[in-house]
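Bench notes, afternoon.
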Amino acid sequence: MPDSLPDQPRKATRKSPAPKRSKIQQRNRSAILDAALEVFSAQGFRGATLDQIAEGAGLSKPNLLYYFPSKEAIHTELLSGLMDIWLDPLREMDPQGDPYAEIMTYVRRKLDMSREMPRESRLFANEILQGAPRMMDGLDATLKPLVDEKARVIADWMSAGKLKESDPHHLLFSIWAMTQHYADFDVQVRAVLGPEHDPFQEAENFIETFYARMLRP
């Protein structure tokens, strides 16, 4: 019998690249996501409708459904993009940097995000208030490990006498509460302070003094 032929090398299978979107498709997707951010941040997930989002985007509802199959799909895409943006300032806290400067840089960036991205802050807050049904996996897989890591860094700074002792996790919670409050409760803040005040400038001055007293040894 003739020798059997050697096995032929298999060709690597390649996944077909995702079809490139046209400029019109990119513009329409962007318009849908921006309109959805406005609607979700104001109405919450349950109160938002596809009709409201389509109207805000300047599209018909069938046209919107060409890009996204459901309200859930739009909401999930917004949240998945937001998680990385929200966590970037914490990721950049440098264990080798000056402890007080690193924490205050983080505080200022969080306050800047509340000033510049109030809709995103309210979108995130609404999702958390509902029990995070569409982003719990992200909280467990991304948020918790990062917060635990940075809490250990802060604890090491405190143990070395570079910062006053406190609970690192609750320190981070306090930063979130103090900075995001100015986005999530903007109407209340401005109603109390009055139109002659700049809430964010005044907040920055107050928070700087507050954390200096709390953290400096």
